[in-house]
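User: T-complex protein 1 subunit beta, Solanum stoloniferum:
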Amino acid sequence: MAIDKLFKDEATEEKGERARMASFIGAMAIADLVKTTLGPKGMDKILQSTGRGHSVTVTNDGATILKSLHIDNPAAKVLVDISKVQDDEVGDGTTSVVVLAGELLREAEKLVNAKIHPMTIIAGFRMASECARNVLEQKVVDNKQDAEKFRSDLMNIARTTLSSKILSQDKEHFAKLAVDAVMRLKGSTNLEAIQIIKKPGGSLKDSFLDEGFILDKKIGVGQPKRIENAKILVANTAMDTDKVKIYGARVRVDSMAKVADLEAAEKEKMREKVQKIISHGINCFVNRQLIYNFPEELFADAGILAIEHADFDGIERLGLVTGGEIASTFDNPESVKLGHCKLIEEIMIGEDKMIHFSGVAMGQACTIVLRGASPHVLDEAERSLHDALCVLSQTVNDSRVLLGGGWPEMVMAKAVDELAKKTPGKRSHAIEAFTRALLAIPTTIADNAGLDSAELIAQLRAEHHKDESNAGIDVISGSVGDMSELGISESFKVKQAVLLSATEATEMILRVDEIITCAPRRREGM
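Assistant: Predicted structure for T-complex protein 1 subunit beta:
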């Protein structure tokens, strides 16, 4: 009896089998949830929030789906987290990592039921993942030296990444956009310099890449519409103090004339501030806050283009690409770094006017303008493009490339299977299980396309027993195809991240033998 009262009321604990059961089931449920989004024929999910406005998201990006779920099961949370990390780290493979981890757990469950100790399973999985990674490293292709080939590798990777997304219809077009944008970065993985603007209207084919920077603002009245060799001051300062605000100020005066004097004094202060700003020798002033009519008029007289309310994101990025710093005091002009660009002009996109900065100091910068039928399509297009950009920018740094379409999994499975035959003891069961889990990815790709997966995987295995086979699943024709001819490639970095994250997550969940849920804290006075 005494032991039962170890925990406070309402705290629960689950031990041994039950705890392991709960973690396995939760993790497998999550894996099955995103399984159908894998591969070129994967389906999308609609996520509807129950909050205000019932916003709807249509997506097949694993990380986005899992981020939006509120999950109670602790093991399922681990899978959600590895998917998030995969998204932050390499951008793509968010679904694969969850599916692989889920399959590893499914295999582990069978082994645990067969009375094999979790630590033995973990040791086997460790050996298997090491072996799988090594065999991938031997099979990579690296075309960094040959610019032409490397570019075609990048195009293939972009096409492969986009083929499982909404952009698959126009993947040629978008792969080219993504590769051009990433090539401009010249090896930096800072995606801040690539700005994505979404404008409803038109079709996805109308999207384009623009070198330079586009600010989603209109040019004010009576100001120059076009400026060459612009010197830009980016600022975050209040330009609305030239009027006494009726609601905000309490002024004690003995006559109305004094109020007029106050107003005049405020106006003078404003005029001085504008003079200080003009003395920087600029011809474009971008401010994050309001600019009232009076200072705007002064700027227009001086022939300076004044842009107000540039949102924070816009300002930060504008400072970054033009090489200027965000200033908030203007007393010593020489210490402020101005931004430079060759030309500022107004352009029309759809119905909206925007301000286009071209020839910016940071040559890497560019803007991708996405057009599409509805906000949902645009959001999903942006997510897909972001995935492609992440993968490409990682690949530019680590230029090792693999074939796709289930080929890497088959290669790894073959190597791991051979390792299992050589390994004595119970660990070999775990290593064999790892092989089966790896095969789950090509199986799922085939299942999602409505193909006979058992038949295809058997054919693939037979193909891979010949040396140096390039066989993978060709979803379009529904048969086994040559991946290098079809140009289906993936980045080595993505595959490696999938393999290692999934194995580590599985290991973590396998180690669990007790789940303790603590009691909710009571409010005082209940």
